[in-house]
Task: structure prediction
Amino acid sequence: MNPNGTLFMPPQASTSAADVDGLFYFIYYASILFFLLVVGVSGYFAYVYRRQGAPKFTSGIAHNVQLEFTWTVIPTMLVFLVFVWGFGSYLNNSVAPKDALQIKVTGQKWFWAFDYPGGSNSVDTLVVPAGKPVQLTMSSTDVIHSFYVPDFRMKQDVVPNRYSLLWFEAPNEGVYTLFCTEYCGAVTDTTEATWKADGQAKSANKFKQKGHFNMGGVVKVVSTRQYEAFLESSNKMGEGISLEVYGEQLYNSKQCATCHSVNGSAGNGPTWKGIYGRQEKISDGTSVKADDNYIRESILEPGAKVVAGYQNIMPTYQGQLKDKQIDAIIAYMKTIK
Ligand SMILES: [Cu+2]
Result:
C-alpha cells in the first residue's frame, strides 16, 4: 500500500487499491512497450527497405509459421493474464466478507445520506472504523447517482428501485473525498430567474447553488473508539441541549442551509427568516399559513404544496428525519424572526 499515491494514481487508502493500481500499471507499461516495439520496428524497416534504385523482386512468401505462432501466443497470454488478474480483483471487490459492518447509503438530489446499525445517521460524511470491512447497501430515491471514492478505487452506480452493493476496508485513519460521478441534474433556469429577480448576482454567491457538481462529501476513517463515540453522539438526538439549538444543528448538518437562508435572502428555496406563521403563496394560486403541520408536510412531502416562484426541487426528508428532529427544526424556525 502506498499512502502517498503514485505517478498517475491518488493515495491507496483501501485494501484493494494496490491490486487495482498494479493491474493498471501492468496494462500501461505493456502498452508502452508494445508501442515502442511496433513503432521502432516500423521505423527500422522503413529505413532498411527504403527505395534504393530499381526495385528488386523477392520470391513470393506465403507465411512464416514461427512468426505467426509467436505473435498469436504472446498477446493471447498477455490478454489472458489481464483477464484472470482483473476478474480476480473484480470478485474480491464484489463479495464482502461475512462479518462486514452494514451501512445503508441513499443517494438523493443532491446529497448522500448514511444509516448506521442502531439507528444513527449522517449526511455527506460517512464515518467508518479503520481496519474493518464495511459493506454499503446503496439505493437512490430519484435519479441515477454514482458513489465514487477515488482513494479507495471504488465506484458504483446508485440506482432507484434497486440495491447496489459495495464493500471496502480502509486500513488507515484519514479523510477521503467522496464524489457523485453520474450527472444527476442541477437547479433549473426558473430558480436562477428567482435569484436574478432578487437582484442577487450569482457570483455574489451567498448560497451554494445545488446540483451534481457539488454532490459529494467525505469518508472519515476513524479508530474503533471514535466510531463508537460517533454512533453514540449521533444517536443522542439533541439530548442535553434545547430543541432550538438542536434544530439549528440539524439546519446545518442536514443540508437545509444550502438552500434556505436565515437572513432573508433568497436561495434555491425560500428564506426561513420569519417563516413561522407567515402567509405563503402556493403555486396553485391559493395561500396557506406556515404553521407546524404545513412545515412538517413541507419537509416530508415537499411536492405537496410548492411555494409560488420556486421549483419543486427540495428532496423529501421522509425517513431521514425523526419526529423529534422535525420538532427541533420547527422550534428553531420560531426563533428566526
Ligand atoms: Cu448525484
